[in-house]
Amino acid sequence: MLPSADLIRKNLQLMPVPGVPGLRLYRAQPDSRLSRLIGADAASPYWAYAWGGGLALCAHIAAEPRCVTGLRVLDLGAGSGLVGLVALHNGAASAIAADIDPFARAACAANAAANALVLEVLADNLLAAGAPLPPVDLVLVGDLFYERALVAPLLAALRRFSDAGAEILIGDPFRETLPTAALQAVASYTVEDFGGDSRAAAVFTLKRN
Ligand SMILES: C[S@@+](CC[C@H](N)C(=O)[O-])C[C@H]1O[C@@H](n2cnc3c(N)ncnc32)[C@H](O)[C@@H]1O
């Protein structure tokens, strides 16, 4: 089945997100039968869940809305688009949701429309060496260090954004693959992770080289 915002709207339920007041997302339920919906060849439906790293960023933006006010924001590895939507909800000037999964981009579009927010959706792989970078002031990275193969290209891309003048904020629940030596923690939160368990998470920025 081809990914589209309509497909998400017809098959998933629009629901509140615990700990994120004021926004609703199309989220997976036990009876969503996502594998039937997306087909056997699709990537895992990360976009149907709110991940601990993204929720840490949402908590941080709610606690410190000035970190996004008036800024052009990129939600890198957006999944559902929740982090970009929370940034817009808290005063960001604009937000781009970048994800290489077409179902995630469809979910971002459906979730933005459901919350009456304007989220630009980008398919480019910004982790590819030399990829053109969109002009943004702040890069928000929710739970994108979830695979070892992503660590080096993601750090390289974030250094490129930083060299271009963007601030970087990374939310992560201390996953095994998180490159802590390269990061500086700025705040800690308790979040509900994928699966429903509460766990510690933090918001980090990049350490200066
Ligand atoms: C664990 S999910 C986190 C989603 C969301 N940020 C959150 O916190 O709920 C990671 C997302 O990163 C996306 N992703 C993986 N590699 C990527 C890449 N090179 N560029 C952009 N997105 C990527 C996946 O498709 C997935 O949607």
Descriptive report:
This protein is of the alpha/beta class and 209 residues long. Helices cover 29% and strands 27% of the residues. The protein has helices at residues 5-11, 34-38, 52-63, 82-89, 102-114, 148-163; strands at residues 13-17, 20-27, 72-76, 94-98, 120-122, 138-142, 167-172, 183-192, 198-206. A hairpin with a 5-residue loop joins strand 8 and strand 9 (198-206). It is globular and about 45 Å long. The relative contact order is 0.17. The model has no long low-confidence stretch (mean pLDDT 94). Residues 43, 46-47, 50-51, 53-54, 77-80, 82-83, 98-101, 104, 125-127, 142-144, 146 line the site of S-adenosylmethionine. S-adenosylmethionine (SAM) binds at residues 43, 46-47, 50-51, 53-54, 77-80, 82-83, 98-101, 104, 125-127, 142-144, 146.
